[in-house]
Amino acid sequence: MAVTVKASLGKTKYYTEVTAGENQIITDEPIDKGGQNKGFNPLEILATSLASCTAATLRMYIERKEWDVENINVEVELENFPLTKRAVFKRDISFEGILDDEQLKRLYTIADACPVHKILTNDIEILTKFS
Question: Is the pLDDT of residue 67 over 80?
C-alpha cells in the first residue's frame, strides 16, 4: 500500500502545508529555530505516526477480542542523535480498562505489529529525484 503526501513551503519560514488526499496539516518549526510554532515539527510528526498507529492497531485488536478497554494512551518520545546516526523511540502504553497479565502480554506483541513500527524497524530506502 502506497501513500502520497505533498508538502508546500512558501516564503514564510518553515510554515509548511502538507496534504494527503483531502486532508491537510500544518508543520512548522519552534520559535527558537526560526519558525512560528504553528504546527508540529517534522520529528513530532514522525513520533505521531508511531503513536497513532500503535493506538489504532491496539484498538482494532481489542475490539476484535471484545475486551473492556475505555482508552488506550500511547506516548512516544523520539530522541535523535545525528552525530551517531541513531534515533531512539521510547513508547509508553497504558490502558483504561480491565486487563489481566496474559492480555497485556498479548497487547505488547500486537503493539509491535503496528505497520509504522514495522516500517521503522525494517530497512528503509529513500529515493529522491528533482523535477
Answer: yes
96 in Cβ contact with 70 (< 8 Å): yes
| Cross-strand bridge partners of residue 66 | none
**What is the DSSP-derived secondary structure letter of residue 2?**
-
Provide the total of helices (H) and of strands (E) in the chain, helices listed first.
3, 5
- How big is the CA angle at 76 (ends 75 and 77), to the nearest 5 degrees? 125
CA distance 49 to 51: 6
Residues 96 and 71: beta-carbon distance below 8 Å = yes
pLDDT of residue 1: 76
Of 94, 83, 90, the C-alpha closest to 120 is 90
